[in-house]
Design a protein that fits this description.
By secondary structure, the protein is of the alpha+beta class. The chain has 4 helices and 12 strands.
């Protein structure tokens, strides 16, 4: 797991654009991320449509951040009948946690990774030390292969989802709304 500092990383794609295949194309459709919107001052988010479709509606999640009530509300539905709802007070939040992992999905003839699936997690840590995961942003990642990778069969242009930038943006909005730091 890697923690990313907001002071040093403006954009996940910018930070890695010089080390990918020769060029990188970022496409939003290569990401599975929550649908986010503001409604009457409340920041709302819900599960991505692909999650709803692939689970046949069996899994659904909704997160609301209400600055007037100073509460974070997390609602989940499992298998259409099991539901959970939790609320967390802004004052109970110590920090906003942001981390990432990647899983290799393809390899060169030398056994080196040429592609990956990225996962960026945005969570809040409570005073009780509980880490509450709000969202995980998934998507196609890009791997540092350069000319060597291209000569060994990797594409000249790699494609990547926008999950890095989307998750960092969500984390920064969350920090601003909660008045907390990002770690």
């Amino acid at each position: 797991m890697t923690s990313l500092e907001p002071e040093t990383v403006e954009s996940w794609d910018e930070a890695h654009s010089l080390t990918m295949s020769l060029t990188v194309r970022t496409l939003s459709l290569l990401s599975i991320k929550p649908y986010l919107w503001f409604d009457k001052g409340i920041h709302r988010s819900r599960s991505h449509m692909a999650v709803l479709v692939f689970s046949l509606g069996a899994y659904y999640k909704r997160v609301e951040i209400d600055p007037d009530r100073r509460r974070i509300s997390v609602k989940r539905s499992y298998c259409w009948i099991f539901q959970s709802a939790r609320e967390y007070a802004f004052d109970d939040v110590v920090r906003v946690a942001y981390d990432c992992d990647s899983i290799p999905t393809s390899f060169s003839i030398l056994g080196e990774s040429t592609d990956e699936l990225d996962m960026f997690r945005v969570s809040v840590e409570l005073k009780s030390r509980e880490l509450v995961r709000l969202w995980t942003f998934y998507g196609e990642g890009a791997v540092a292969t350069g000319w060597k990778g291209v000569l060994l069969g990797d594409a000249i242009t790699d494609v990547s989802g926008d999950q890095g930038d989307a998750s960092l943006g969500y984390a920064m909005v969350l920090c601003a709304m909660l008045g907390k730091t990002l770690t």
